[in-house]
Amino acid sequence: MMNVFGELHLLRGILMTWIGVFLMLQSPAGGASVEQIGEGSRHPMRGKEIDWIDGDYVLRNDQVVAVIARPNADRHANMTVRSVGACIIDFTRLDAESDQLSCYYPLAGRYQFFDNGLVETGDLDGGGVFWRCRSTAATARNETVATIEYQLRDGDPYLTVIKTVTGEDVSKVTAADSVRVDTTFVVGTLAETTTGYCEDEHFRQTYGFEATLGTKTPLWSASGRNRQLKYGADAAERSENRVQWITRIYAASSPLDLWGLTSGAKAQRFSVSGAVGEHPRIKLSVIAGSIGSLELPCEWRSAADGKSVVHLPPGQYRVRGEAIGHLPVEADIKVTSESSEFALKLGAATTVQVTVVSEDGQPIPCKASFYGAKDEDGNMTPDPVFGIESQSGAVGNCVYCADGQFVRSLPPGTYDLLLSRGPEYDAVFEKIQIAQGQQRTVRATLKRVVDTTGWVSAELHSHSSPSGDNTSDQLGRVENLVCEQIDFAPCTEHQRIESYDDQLEKLGAQAFMATCTGMELTGSPLPLNHQNAFPLKWKPYSQDGGGPKTSSNPVTQIARLAMWDDNSDKLVQTNHPNVRQLVEDRDLDGNPDGGFAKMLDFMDVMEVHPPENIFMTSEEVKAMKRPGTQRILPWMELLKSGRRIPGVVNTDAHYNWNGSGWLRNWVRSSTDEPAKIRTAEMVDRLEKGQVIMSTGPFMTVQLHHPGLEAPAAIGDSVTVDGAGAKVAIKVQCANWMDVNRVEVFVNGEMQPELSRTRKTHPQDFGNGVVKFDQHLGVTLPGESFVIVAAIGERMELGRVMGKRYGRRPPVVVSNPIFVTTNLK
Ligand SMILES: [Zn+2]
After folding, report:
1. Ligand 1 center to residue 153 CA distance, Å?
2. Are 313 and 263 in contact (CB under 8 A)?
3. Which domains does the chain have, with CATH numbers?
4. What pairs with residue 812 in β-bridges?
5. pLDDT in tens, 310-335
C-alpha cells in the first residue's frame, strides 16, 4: 500500500489539504479520533509495513496512529499475515513515522473476529475514543466469547487494549497476546517491569506491550512465525465466568525511548549534524547515566535528516553519536522535567565522491561495490557494511545510485571500487586508498559496449516487503532493478496487485525503466502452484489490490488468474515449476498420472532457470539431489512434445543486496528506449518466445537458409525446402565476463559435431566484446526446433554480482526457432 498515494499523486495535494481541513474541523488539538477508512478518509502513513485498506479503522491522536483491520473472514494483511480482523496492522508514532508492524494479535489469535456488524465506536468520558468488537468464534472450541476494546485517550502515547473473555469455564484462558514482526526484529523485556518489546533498530521502530496489572515481567515464546507474549499470572483479573487483561501498546524509537515513555518521561529531541553523504544511518547511544534496568550502552538510530526523539527521565547522561566513516562525538547532557533539544556534531568524515556518466556525459544509474583490499604493506581493509540487505540506497558493501552521483562516507583504508550497470556495460575497476578525514573524487564513464539493438532486458519476478514473506524496502528493489539496467519490470508482489510507479518517481528514474501493475498468485503445492501475471487492474485500498484468490488446485488457480479482469490480455508465467509434476506426475509418486497438464492451456511462459542446467549430462541429472530444480531439460522435452511454451529466467529476488540483475531476459522490442516500452508489446513478444535467457552474456541466434528471404529469428516458425540451413550465432560480453563453450540443440538434443569450445576451436572465439560470431551448418529433420546455449565453463560472473550470485557462471540460452523442413 506504500504506492497508493504515489499512484494518485495528482490527487495528493488536494487530499492533503482536505485532510488538513478535516483534522481542523473534527479533532481539537491533541484530541483522539476514530474513523473507518474510505473515500475521503484515507490518511497517508510512512513505513514499509503499511497494509491498511478501505473498511479498516484508524485511531489517532497527536501522538500515535493505529489501524485496526476490519473484522471480516477474508481480511488478511498480506500473504503470510492472515486473519487479522480486529487486530492492529499498522502502528507508529507521529513524530517518528515508520510503521514496521506486521500484526498485533490481541488474545494471541485464539478468537475469530469476522463480523464487522459487531463493531461499536464512540467517545470516552474525559476525552478519547474507543473501538470495540465481540468475537464470532473461539478457535479453542471452549464456548467462550472474547471482546476486544481499543481505547485511545487524548494525548496518550499508547493505545489501551482491553481483552475480556467470558463463558462457563474461563479457567484455561491465559493472559497472552501475539505479535508478528519479522527478520530484523529482536524481542526483549524491560527487566523488573510488566513490559515486553520488539525492536527493529535499523528501521527505527520498537513496539512495547505493557500489562497494566501485576508485577511479573512477561515472557516471549515463538509459535510459528508469530511470537507470543505471555503476561504474568497476576496480569489478569479473574472471576468465575470472566477473565480480563489490559495492555498498553506503545510505538517508540528504541527500547530506551520505550522505557522513558512507560515512565512518563518527556520527549527529548536530538539532532546530529556533520554527517557527510547519503544514508549515514547515524547511531546514537547513551553510554553513561541512570537508565533503570536497561543495560548500557543503549542505542537508537536517527532518521535520515539526523533527527530523533527519545523520552528520557530527568538526569545526567553521556551521549555518543557515530556513523560509518566519521569520527564519533560524545556529549554530556542534562535532561530536566521539560522537553529540550540537544545538538551533536559528528567529527570529520572520510569520503568518496562518485560521479558516473554514460558516454554522452549524462549521469546514469549505477551500482558501486566496495571491497576491502590490501595496501602496499599487506594490511587488509575489511569490506564495508553500509546497511542491511532489507534497506534501500546503500546495502551491504554496495551503493545503489539511481542518479549516478553520490558521496559515500567510509572507514579509511584501501578499497577495490567496482562501478557497474548490468551486463551491457563494461564495469570500471578502481583501486582507492583513503586516509582518515580525506575526501576522494572518482569520476567514471560507463561504456555500453554490448550492442543489443532491437532487444530490451526484462525481469519478470521480484519481491519486497508488501509480499509478506520478506522485509525489504520496495524502494530498494526498484533501485536494484534500475541500477542493474533492467529496462522492463512488472511489479509482482505475492498475493497483491501493486505498482512500482511511485518508487520510480521517487528515484526520478522513469526514463530508465518501464513497469506495470502485476502480482504473483502464490498457492500450494509449492513450487508448482505459483504464477505471475501482468498487467492487472490494480484496485488500490482493496483486499489484495483487487487480485484473485489462490486455489489448492493449480489448474483452477492458473485459470482464474488467466481469466482475471474479464479475460484481459496479460502474460501468465508459471514460476519455478517442477516440470515432471506439471506434465506427468501430480503426486510425485513415480507413477505417471497426467500431472497438472491442463495448466499448460493457461500458461504463456514458464521459468526454466537455472540456465546452466542445459549443459548437464544424463548422469549428472541422475545424481541430482533435488531433481525438481532441473527445469530446462524437461522444458525442451515439453517443446518436443509439441507444447510451445517459451522459457524465461528470473531472480525471484526477495532482498536488496545484489538481489536483482544476475538473471535477465532480453525481449525483442520495437524500441530501445525504456520509457517508450509498451506493456502490451512485451506481453506479445514474450508469448511468441522472442526471448533470450541469461546471467549476463548477450546472444543473438538466426537461422539462415537459401530459401528464406530474411533469416529466421528467435521465436519464429519457418518452413524451408531441403538442406542448407545454417545457424548464425553471435555472443557478446562486457569486460567482466567471458564464454568458452557454445552448443546447438536440435529437438532438445545437443549436436556434438556443432560443439565449439575455446580449447577445440580457438579460432572461432574472440577476445573483445564479441566472443563468438559464427555460422554453423545444421542438419534438420522434418520438424525441429533449434536452441543455442553459450557458457563460460569454470568461470564466474565475479564480484560485480557480489559474493553469492557472483559465483554463478556467465551463461545464455536462446528460445527456440521452429523449422519445418520439406525434405526432398
Ligand atoms: Zn516469487
Report:
1. 42
2. yes
3. 4-251 (2.70.98), 262-345 (2.60.40.10), 351-445 (2.60.40.1120), 456-694 (3.20.20.140), 697-824 (2.60.40.10)
4. 694, 790
5. 999 999 999 999 999 999 999 999 99
